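> example.struct
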């Protein structure tokens, strides 16, 4: 069985990429021929990591910059290899671009995998609906909300956003190393966030929040994206840039979570974010906006606060206290709970994803 996992966003530190990378590694380890297609130049370390795991990587130009060139290169790649499955990961009917290319290449199974609950391009999403329905013959979603959003009343299968849970056990040594690297003192409270710098992830809200907090609070923003420069400029204008750490894209998010004291996700819209599962596994307190799907409250400890109520965000952040001993216990308890609820990558790939492929191919 030859599988092509297509990412419709850059292959870097983001939720869709986490699913693709983790799933590809598990399948390759089980002897399945897996290739990942990325619409960007992939970080060399990540590329090496995937290739060491036996996963091939294809890089083609971003479809947003030149969709015609993207489509032609994609058609060429699909025609050059006899894939059994093309598994497209995104959040709207714009996945029709990849699905139509796969259909033209006579790929037997063409999957659309919904990772979110809305799109930034609603008009295009509506226009491409007929092409999407014509070309898709396998439907996956990260949760019910994402499935209903993209597939309406069509049948779909849920595959939960699993991670390699044991990699996220809280580690005090790694915490010290990361905090020392970025000159974060023991008295400082580090607010964390991971995500692409864009409208959806809404990092500008965290700039406003940090401005209202005392100087002992610092902010670590992990990721890259189109709004990065804007966010940096807003931080300078607010006079708090020296309290913010911009790490760029990292391949070892689990290490950085150890350094944080609190995780935040002020998204304008969100499906079932991997990074919240990662933060919970690391034992972090988590605050998210009310725009995030309630299905993410897997440990009954996630706090949902309206973006219109920044004073409540400030109050909730202000009561965070760091206790490494209790955090290790919380981390282990959360990991056990997440395993029970089906958020372990290997289990999900072996029990849901691979059987889904085989069932639809037979």
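> example.seq
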């Amino acid at each position: 069985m030859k599988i092509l996992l297509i990412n419709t966003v850059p292959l870097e530190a983001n939720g869709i990429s986490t699913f693709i990378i983790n799933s590809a590694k598990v399948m390759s380890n089980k002897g399945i021929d897996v290739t990942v297609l990325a619409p960007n130049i992939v970080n060399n370390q990540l590329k090496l990591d995937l290739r060491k795991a036996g996963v091939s990587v294809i890089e083609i130009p971003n479809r947003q910059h030149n969709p015609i060139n993207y489509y032609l290169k994609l058609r060429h790649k699909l025609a050059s290899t006899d894939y059994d499955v093309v598994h497209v990961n995104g959040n709207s009917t714009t996945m029709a671009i990849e699905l139509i290319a796969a259909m033209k290449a006579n790929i037997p199974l063409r999957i659309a995998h919904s990772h979110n609950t809305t799109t930034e391009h609603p008009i295009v999403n509506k226009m491409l609906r007929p092409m999407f329905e014509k070309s898709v013959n396998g439907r996956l979603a990260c949760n019910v909300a994402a499935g209903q959003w993209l597939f309406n009343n069509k049948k779909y299968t849920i595959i939960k956003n699993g991670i390699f849970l044991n990699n996220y056990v809280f580690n005090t040594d790694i915490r010290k190393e990361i905090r020392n690297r970025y000159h974060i003192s023991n008295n400082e409270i580090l607010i964390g966030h991971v995500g692409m710098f864009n409208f959806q992830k809404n990092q500008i809200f965290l700039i406003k929040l940090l401005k209202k907090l005392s100087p002992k609070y610092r902010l670590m923003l992990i990721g890259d994206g189109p709004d990065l420069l804007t966010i940096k400029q807003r931080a300078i204008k607010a006079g708090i840039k020296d309290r913010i750490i911009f790490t760029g894209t990292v391949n070892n998010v689990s290490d950085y979570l150890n350094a944080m004291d609190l995780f935040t996700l002020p998204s304008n819209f969100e499906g079932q974010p991997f990074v919240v599962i990662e933060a919970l596994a690391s034992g972090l307190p988590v605050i998210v906006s009310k725009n995030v799907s309630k299905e993410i409250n897997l440990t009954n400890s996630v706090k949902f606060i309206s973006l219109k109520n920044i004073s409540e965000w400030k109050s909730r952040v202000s009561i965070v206290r760091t206790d490494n001993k209790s955090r290790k216990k919380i981390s282990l308890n959360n990991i056990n709970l997440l395993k029970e609820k089906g958020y372990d990558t290997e289990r999900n790939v072996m029990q849901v994803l691979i059987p889904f492929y085989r069932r639809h191919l037979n």
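> remarks
The CA atoms of residues 133 and 277 lie 31 Å apart.
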